[in-house]
C-alpha cells in the first residue's frame, strides 16, 4: 500500500482555521495552535450567546412594556394579568413594539386590560 503524506490536507485545514480567526488579536490569529484554541472558544461563546440573546431581548421588551404601562397608570404584572383574563394573545415582542411606535394602540390595549381587571 502506498504511503500517504498529509501535507496538503493539513495545510488546507490550517489555512481554514487561520481564515476563521481573522480579527482576533496577536498570536491568536498567527499561530495555528493558538488560533485553533481561540476559534474553539469563540464558537463556544457564539453558541452560548445565541441563547442568551433571547433572554436579553425578552428582558428589554418587559422593561419597555412596564415603562409604557406605568405611563398609562398600570404596572406590568397587572397589565399582563388583565390581558390574560381578557384573552388577548399578544406576545411581549409586539407589545414592546407598540409601546415604542404606536402609543395610541398601546393605550387601547392597556384600557382593555384595565377593564378586565375591574
Helix fraction bin: over 70%
Question: Tally of extended strands?
Answer: 0
Based on helices, strands and strand pairing, what is the structural class?
mainly alpha
Strand content: under 5%
Mean pLDDT across every amino acid position: 95
Please explain how this structure is put together.
The chain is an all-alpha fold and 118 residues long. It has one domain: Ribosomal protein L20, C-terminal domain (c-terminal domain of poly(a) binding protein, Orthogonal Bundle). It has five helices and no strands. It has helices spanning 7-20, 32-71, 76-86, 92-101, 103-117. The protein starts with 6 loop residues before the first helix and ends with a helix. The mean pLDDT is 95.
List strands and helices in order, with pairings.
Blueprint: H1 7-20, H2 32-71, H3 76-86, H4 92-101, H5 103-117
Helix pairs in contact: 1-2, 2-4, 3-5, 4-5
Structure, briefly:
The chain has helices at 7-20, 32-71, 76-86, 92-101, 103-117.
Features:
0% strand, c-terminal domain of poly(a) binding protein, 76% helix, 5 helices, 118 residues, mainly alpha
Amino acid at each position: 500500500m502506498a504511503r500517504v503524506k498529509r501535507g496538503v490536507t493539513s495545510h488546507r485545514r490550517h489555512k481554514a482555521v487561520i481564515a476563521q480567526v481573522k480579527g482576533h488579536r496577536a498570536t491568536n490569529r498567527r499561530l495555528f495552535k493558538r488560533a485553533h484554541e481561540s476559534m474553539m472558544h469563540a464558537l463556544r461563546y457564539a453558541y452560548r450567546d445565541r441563547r442568551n440573546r433571547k433572554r436579553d431581548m425578552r428582558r428589554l421588551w418587559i422593561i419597555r412594556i412596564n415603562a409604557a404601562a406605568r405611563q398609562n397608570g398600570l404596572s406590568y404584572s397587572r397589565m399582563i394579568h388583565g390581558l390574560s383574563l381578557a384573552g388577548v394573545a399578544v406576545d411581549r415582542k409586539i407589545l414592546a413594539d407598540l409601546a415604542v411606535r404606536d402609543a395610541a394602540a398601546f393605550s387601547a390595549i392597556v384600557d382593555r386590560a384595565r377593564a378586565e381587571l375591574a
